[in-house]
Design brief:
Radius of gyration: 16 Å
Helix content: 25-40%
Bound molecules: 4'-phosphopantetheine
Order of helices and strands: EHEHEHEHEHH
Oligomer: single chain
Number of strands: 5
Strand order of the largest sheet: 3-2-1-4-5
Strand content: 15-25%
Distance between the termini: 59 Å
Largest sheet: 5 strands, parallel
Length: 168
Amino acid sequence: MAQAVSGLVAVYPGTFDPVTNGHLDIVQRCAPLVDRLVVSVLANETKSPVFSTDERVGMLRGVLREFPNVEIDSFDGLLIDYARRKGARLILRGIRAISDYEYELQMALMNRRLAPEIETMFMMAGEAHSFISSRLVKEVIRLGGNISGLVPPSVEEILRRRILNPGG
Ligand code: PNS
């Protein structure tokens, strides 16, 4: 039988462009279950994020500062190499709907092939958050819609400034 892990470290990777209340919901569910949760921003500009890596890290730091066992970081290269460097046994991913499943399954199985000792753990976002995505939040704000309750207030303000007043 596998040994229970003490000092369990999980990595929660993502683009976080920007962090939404859906991401926060996943962090809140996972943080009490592990010793350390590393929320890590993919520093990959090929995805053409609206926010720089430093800005995305800064927003996460701002909204997650009350979680003592949560660390915010960034990474590039292969996720499993990064997870190994962090001593993580778990990769955490949120699943909203069945449409997320195929992409997540592919990534999880590829990561397992590359690093059999690291498990991917999926968590279901709460129902209230299951439709939120960074992409839609940006689209709604760009088109003048109301995004309150979908992202933390500090992030809403930064989004408003960046998207509605890009030069300012
Ligand atoms: O928030 P996202 O965009 O769905 O996150 C995707 C992420 C960062 C988890 C994924 O793109 C990733 O792990 N990138 C790192 C490169 C890598 O390891 N690729 C092989 C994964 S199968």
